[in-house]
What we know:
Blueprint: H1 6-20, E1 33-38, E2 43-47, H2 60-70, E3 76-82, H3 93-102, E4 107-111, E5 118-121, H4 122-125
Parallel strand pairs: 3-4
Antiparallel strand pairs: 1-2, 1-3, 4-5
Amino acid sequence: MADIDEKTIGELVAQAKQSSKHAYSPYSNFPVGAAVLTTEGNIFTGCNVENASLGLTICAERNAIFHMVAEAQRQIVAVVVYTPTPTPSAPCGACRQVINEFGPSAQIISVCDGPDVLHMPLSELLPHAFGPIDLE
C-alpha cells in the first residue's frame, strides 16, 4: 500500500466532503462524496446521483472514477469516501469492483462526521477480485 502524506489525505477528505454537498439524494437522504487520487497526483471528485428508477442511481465513488476516466487518467492511488454518518461507510460492492479495474492496490479511506476512519487497501475489501489481469 503506497504511503500518502497527511496533507494529501486532508485535501482528499475536504474535497470529498465538499462534493457531498452537491449530491442528489432525495430518496435515501444519504448524500455521499468521493475524491479519487491518481498516480499523476490529480484529484477527481464525485457525488451520488439518485434516480426514481433506483437501478439508474450512481454512487459517488463511481461518479468520481468515471470523471477521472473522462479526463484520460487510468490509475487510482486512493479513494476517499465521506458520509454524513456517525461511523464510516465502506464502498458498495459495485464500487469496489470499479475501483479494482483502475486501482487494485488502491487505498480506501472512509470518513464520516464521527471520529472513526476506515483505512485499508482495496484487496482487504474485495479479496480474490476479478479484474483486467484475469483476462491476460
